[in-house]
Amino acid sequence: MSSRRFIGRMRLGLGVVVLGLVACASGASAQRRSRRATPVVAPGVVAELAPYAPASPPGDPRYLFTLTLRTTAWPDAEVVADRRLLRFEVHDPSSSRARPLACAHPDAQRLRAGSPRARAIGGMNAPPSYREWIDLRMYCTGRALDRAERGGRIVATYGQSRAARGAWVARSRLAVPGTPAESLLPAGEFKLPPRPSTPPLTAAVEAAVSLAPTSQRREEGLSFAVSVRSPRGSRVVYLRHDYVRFRIRGPLGAAECGVAPTPLAPIVDLFRPVSPRTATTIRVDARQACRGSFPVAGVYEVAPVVSLPWAFPGDPTRAITGEHAGSAAVVRIIIGERGYVEHIPEGESP
């Protein structure tokens, strides 16, 4: 046999051996991957959102929902009972290609693994579920809330999309094999009811009163910017902080507050001009006017009421007088003086 034919056969034999080794290695790698593959297991706890309509709503019912965490596959479960873990994505109703807008609780960044708000549900001596009510306006503001009010589809989740190692929101207390802890749970999809139309100002309205929405971590430092304008031509108003009171509806119920007016005669130079385009604004310290009215975190609807007792000297028709109420504005208290206070649905026990 010539040396050239011998070398050719050797090369052919080596090629067959190499191909066999590659095939064996690929098969072994596939086996290892199949062994490491995580089985698809349904969550042992589900999160559900449903409309909340109590007899005495703490705010506009269109934005109120109950969050329920309940067991399904796990007989004994442990959950992190914290409404701040809710997250939302609002999809554009007019375009499926538009990027969804994200909503989260303004205090969500402070949440960590191993929350002290762990609760047992299911099993003996434990309730079957955990429930709190929420106001969507605590999570969604600005463009996201506007999109939701225009009919955007809202997708809810409960947990942390980028959870730290070891973080969880639901787990089995019995440590059932194949049931890992959950760090993010789907919480359903929904849409808001249609936004009611705002009635136009009538000719009988002399003063348009408004309050700027605001957010504050606690009641300390909170203030209200109250504006008055005239829908019916150029006028003047004599406005002071003790001529304003506030009607409040929030997590603790309804209340009314304000600074007791001081009986002082008006100063002509302090009358302020107003018109359909020009407003006069006064800032009222909430701690002075409504101390103790915002002790817990949540959404408060605050409606201003302005009393204007003084006519302009020499020309009684020039000044706007009387009592005038404005529409409610949203005031968000993010933490509150009392820390985390559970929003227990009406008629249920903590």
Radius of gyration: 31 Å
Number of domains: 2
Backbone structural class:
mainly beta
- What is the overall silhouette? elongated
The residue-averaged pLDDT reads 85
How many distinct helices?
3
For the termini, the CA-CA separation is 94 Å
Instruction: Sketch the topology as an H/E string, one letter per element.
Output: HEEEEEEEHEEEEEEEEEEEHEEE
Tell me about the largest β-sheet.
6 strands, mixed
Strand content: 25-35%
Helix content range of the residues, please? 10-25%
What's the total count of β strands? Answer: 21
**Uncertain regions: pLDDT < 50 for 5+ in a row?**
1-8, 10-41
Explain the overall architecture.
13% of the residues lie in helices and 35% in strands. The protein has 350 residues and is mostly beta strands. The chain has two domains: 146 residues, no CATH class; 129 residues, Immunoglobulin-like (Sandwich). Strands 12, 15, 16, 19, 20 and 21 form a six-stranded mixed sheet that branches. Strands 5-4-8-10 form a four-stranded antiparallel sheet.
Element layout with pairings:
Elements: H1 3-36, E1 45-51, E2 64-71, E3 77-80, E4 86-91, E5 101-104, E6 118-121, E7 129-135, H2 142-149, E8 153-159, E9 170-172, E10 184-190, E11 208-211, E12 214-216, E13 223-229, E14 235-237, E15 244-250, E16 253-258, E17 272-274, E18 279-285, H3 286-289, E19 296-308, E20 322-325, E21 329-336
